[in-house]
Amino acid sequence: MKSSLLRTISVLAASLSLVACGAPEASNAAQTDDNQFAIIHQETSQQARFDVVQITDQLSDPWALAFLPDGDFLITEKTGQVVRVSAETGQITAIPGGPEVLVSGQGGLLDLALSPDFATDGQIFLSFAEGTNDQNHTAIASAILRGNELTGLKTLFQANTIEKKKGAHFGSRFVLDDAGHLYASIGEGFNWLHEAQNPHSHFGKIIRLNLDGSVPDDNPFADGVDGAPEVWSYGHRNPQGLTLHPTTGVIWESEHGPKGGDEINILQKGGNYGWPKATFGMGYTGKVISEFTELPGMVDSVLHWVPSIAPSGLDFYEGEKFSNWNGDLFSGALAGKHLRRIELDGETEAGQERLLVALKEKIRDVRSGPDGFLYLLTKSGKLLRLEPS
Ligand SMILES: [Ca+2]
What we know:
The protein has a 5-stranded antiparallel beta sheet, with no helix packed on it. The chain contains 2 helices and 26 strands. The chain is mostly beta strands. The chain has helices at about 1-20, 120, and strands spanning about 40-45, 50-55, 60-65, 75, 80-85, 90-95, 110-115, 125-130, 135-145, 150-160, 160-165, 175, 180-185, 205-210, 230-235, 240-245, 250-255, 260-265, 305, 310-315, 330-335, 340-345, 350-355, 365-370, 375-380, 385-389. The radius of gyration is 21 Å and the shape is globular. Calcium ion binds next to loops.
């Protein structure tokens, strides 16, 4: 409630300052889109000219974005709140009923996904950091969105809890496949890097669950003998991007390396993605983590970045509005402060482009919208829409 009140005050203050400056709304007409949202930037890139439309800049460290059937946006704020943003006005409404969240370091309320049957069941999935500063883990819950309230909060998964100073490396992204599975990325907890190679630990893993939280029978370690039943792939560091390829249905992942060595990977059942035994990264102090960049039995990345860009949300563009971008992969960059467009030839990189460098924004999430526009969340609190100009 407090944050809503603050928002109301800041919106009022912004309106008053406009009045005080005597800025008539009509003078902004050339710099607004059809819904009167401000165009804050225009860019001519290699394959598209576009406007950047600001729907709001009043979010609190937004992490994840989903598109509601009525056109509004459902958003998680890392500071602990689920909110709805009106597609008509940009107004933010807090949605109570979410989980108790540990907001510390990289921990907080994290990813968000709608059930495939959301239009009828109203179910959503949330991931978040849970516990204390000394003992914490990534957790996943489901809840039902009724109007502007969450009900029936149910814990589906809790990663192993081990001693972990402060909030470091929780992951976390979801993706739902077309067969009723939820995949989620779990970070390696920073200090616990060697646990990424231990299939029995949840640290540094992609896990796979049924939508009720149970473990699918065809998971690679479903019987629990050679690994934890929930584990789908391992040897990951801190994965914060997951998306489904629009035609192959295979899952693509991005993860943070340390100093260098960020990766894009294509997930295989039971695959070992190398961390920390094979990596292009080095320790933050310059210390060598491994002399190997690849090893037999480990899956190589599609591409890696040195220096790091700190990849966040990941999505394939699909739509009519940007025909030249169809099938391209987009990644937000936090440290890199841009939007990365990746052209592909099948499963091989065919070119890359930095977009929105001039905005100097840490981009936390990117999603291809059902309306064909491309949507972004910035760490600074903006929901942005890219529209062809
Ligand atoms: Ca790797």
